[in-house]
Specification:
The structure is a single chain. By secondary structure, the chain is α+β, with helices and mostly antiparallel strands. It is 21% helix and 36% strand. It has helices at 3-15, 35-41, 72-80, 178-193, 209-221, and strands at 20-24, 27-31, 56-63, 85-92, 106-114, 119-126, 132-139, 146-155, 162-169, 198-203, 225-226, 236-237, 240-241, 243-248, 251-257, 268-273. Helix 4 (178-193) packs parallel to helix 5 (209-221). The radius of gyration is 17 Å and the shape is globular.
């Protein structure tokens, strides 16, 4: 196992042992473990030798389907070449994914589903070190399996502000929207604290109109805008796209979704610009 990957995995597992409470829609809701630590670390002093992002920021977001299918490594290397940030969902520890992207020297991993032989979760790869790394987990009500969120911050060229980057795999199987909204609400706590640009990327499992409406409400509450794709070749279920990139304080210079056979999701390649 990649040693950096193992270190992040152990740290994240420790955070899962604690929980607090927050208020959401008048109900007591379990606060994600590690939220207080994450809030305290926002805006922390940047690591030595950090390189700020911008004015252009190239990213890729992709549910890699546990790296189970032939060709995933070649496709990832192709799509991630030149990217400052890569947001991967269903990233398998055993697949040694970071080794396929030589330019990505830094990683932040949030564990989700695990079995006796592997752990999968969301993995953020970056060229340059983040000033903040933290992660959360939300349990799917029906399957009782975790869905993970990874949070990182990066310095920006010519600015005192940081980029808040959130890599998320949303709750999928649930009756109603309560758990889905709770997972988004946890992000609200971070976004409300953060004053700079925001980037959210991942598999948001918006496979019906109610989930899309919940996501629209969340975006409206935080001045977030969706990156649009023309033509829109994102993976869909029941005619609804699953994968999204949401931004605040960033312009979209280009955005494409690329059909692949190496996953059941098509990767999103986007170039963003600081205004």
């Amino acid at each position: 196992m990649n040693t950096a990957f193992a270190r992040h995995l152990c740290r994240a597992a420790t955070r899962l042992l604690a929980a607090g409470l927050l208020c959401h829609a008048g109900l007591a809701v379990a606060e994600p473990a590690g939220m207080a630590e994450c809030l305290a670390g926002m805006g922390a002093q940047q690591r030595q030798a950090a390189v700020p992002l911008g004015p252009d920021i190239q990213i890729v977001s992709w549910n890699i389907q546990k790296a189970d299918n032939p060709g995933w490594a070649e496709d990832l290397q192709l799509f991630a070449t030149g990217a400052e940030l890569a947001f991967l969902q269903e990233a398998s520890v055993s697949a040694a994914i970071p080794g396929t992207v030589p330019e990505a020297d830094f990683l932040a991993f949030a564990p989700g589903y695990r079995n006796a032989s592997d752990v999968t979760g969301v993995l953020t790869l970056s060229r340059y070190p983040p000033s903040l790394e933290c992660d959360f987990s939300s349990v799917e009500p029906l399957l009782q399996t975790p869905k993970a969120t990874s949070v990182t911050e990066y310095p920006l060229v010519g600015r005192d502000e940081r980029l808040l980057a959130i890599n998320i795999h949303s709750v999928n199987f649930s009756f109603g929207l309560q758990r889905y909204r709770e997972q988004l609400h946890a992000l609200s706590t971070l976004i409300n604290r953060h004053k700079g640009p925001v980037l959210i990327a991942g598999d948001l499992n918006t496979w019906n109109s109610n989930r899309l409406k919940a996501l629209d409400d969340f975006m409206a509450g935080h001045d977030l805008s969706p990156v649009t794709f023309m033509p829109d070749l994102r993976t869909t279920v029941f005619g609804n796209p699953l994968d999204h990139i949401l931004v605040r304080g960033l312009h979209t210079a280009s955005a494409v979704a690329i059909p692949v056979d190496s996953s059941d999701h098509n990767p999103l390649l986007v170039r963003l610009q600081l205004p």
